[in-house]
From TrEMBL:
Protein name, entry field: Prostaglandin F2-alpha receptor
GO MF, one example: prostaglandin F receptor activity
Residues passing through the membrane, by range: 32-54, 66-94, 106-127, 157-176, 201-230, 250-273, 285-308
Cell compartment(s), UniProt: Cell membrane
Organism listed in the record: Gasterosteus aculeatus aculeatus (three-spined stickleback)
């Protein structure tokens, strides 16, 4: 990472790519405050979402939703740790005036920073795609899901997603292609500027291609799941069991997918463009902007679970029913579906026949219970 010359000067990976930092004190304070505020908001959002998910996980009695909540809780925990670790490293860098040669002469902090950026970037994408696949199987192949996908299979899949993200993160260190401090001197990433060999091109491509594949898998699986639920509703073949929480999970998955595409899509595409470009043009500003967009993924993800819960969705559908008038039956069907799921998971002993009878209850009775 660094070599010492005879006169005691150090030649590191820092000095060859950019000159010394000339930030003013006011800019440094503003950067530290902005990083601290972003870190605080992210920790609060993820902590609140984790509390809601754990509360739902402890009282759930349906196996398929328990698997979904396991992945969702793991996603929120990953985002929370990402805010804590990456945010602390950013504050450390700004605290030392971005003088990497002073506090990190051997490049250890830079390597850890770059590995954390990659790991906490890929992990949410992999977890989101795993959640989409699990829900697609649960909706389209419910018997296979209940018999072949046990809880320990879900935990193994969860461990594999983290392991794959960690492997991609440490790959540059294992191949002796350490992460580089970028031109803005505020973060570390793959070697994106200057002369590069085939490994310097391959490593960021592996990162971007895997991220884009995870996004595409989420889009395909969520589309299949949504179409299956819509087709079942139109054909009136849906069972009373699980209708409401299926809709809740699909809404959350679509929200996660939308946030990931908006936040991570520009970064993944930009990294591919910079890695395969023909000319050696500066990449500092454009890359820094898309990285800042990607960091919002960890802030917006938890609000998907906070806002798209069954209680919130039911209120939204009720407001939609009030706005559309009495001819709209969608909110009433939603309330009836929530009632059926609640009665099925309770200890009242309703069977399938009782569940079918609930569809014939008067609307006033359904509204009073819901």
């Amino acid at each position: 990472m660094s070599t010492m010359s005879a006169n005691g000067s150090s030649e590191t990976a820092y000095g060859s790519e950019f000159g010394p930092s000339n930030n003013t004190g006011s800019r440094k304070e503003m950067s530290i405050v902005a990083s601290g505020v972003s870190m605080t908001v992210g920790i609060f959002s993820n902590g609140l979402a984790l509390f809601i998910l754990l509360k739902s996980y402890n009282r759930i009695q349906i196996k398929s939703k328990a698997s979904f909540l396991l992945f969702a809780s793991s996603l929120v925990v990953t985002d929370l740790l990402g805010h804590l670790i990456n945010g602390s490293l950013v504050i450390l860098v700004y605290g030392f005036h971005k003088e990497w040669e002073t506090f990190d002469p051997h490049g250890i902090t830079c390597s850890a920073f770059g590995a954390c950026m990659v790991f906490f970037g890929l992990s949410p994408l992999f977890l989101g795609s795993a959640m989409a696949v699990e829900r697609c199987i649960g909706v389209t192949r419910p018997i296979f899901h209940s018999t072949a996908l046990a809880s320990y299979h879900m935990k193994r899949l969860l461990a594999l997603t983290w392991l794959l993200a960690a492997l991609v993160a440490v790959l540059p260190v294992l191949l002796w292609r350490p992460y580089k401090v970028q031109s803005s001197r505020s973060w570390c990433f793959f070697h994106m500027e200057g002369p590069k060999d085939w490994l310097d091109v391959l490593l960021p491509l592996v990162f971007s291609v895997l991220g884009l594949m995870a996004l595409m898998l989420s889009i395909v699986c969520n589309a299949m799941t949504s179409c299956a639920l819509l087709r079942a509703r139109l054909r009136r073949k849906h069972h009373c069991r699980g209708t409401s929480y299926h809709i809740e999970m699909i809404c959350q998955l679509l929200g996660i997918m939308l946030v990931s595409c908006v936040c991570w899509g520009p970064l993944l595409i930009r990294v591919i463009m910079l890695s395969t470009r023909a000319k050696d043009e500066p990449a500092s500003f454009s890359l820094l902007m898309v990285v800042r967009m990607a960091t919002w993924n960890q802030i917006l993800d938890p609000w998907v679970y906070i806002l798209l819960r069954k209680a919130i969705l039911r209120k939204m559908f009720t407001l939609l029913h009030d706005c559309c008038g009495p001819k709209s039956r969608f909110a009433q069907r939603w309330q009836r579906s929530v009632l059926r799921s609640s009665l099925e998971t309770s200890n009242s002993g309703f069977g399938p026949t009782d569940c079918r009878l609930l569809g014939r209850l008067p609307e006033t009775a359904i509204k009073s219970v819901a």
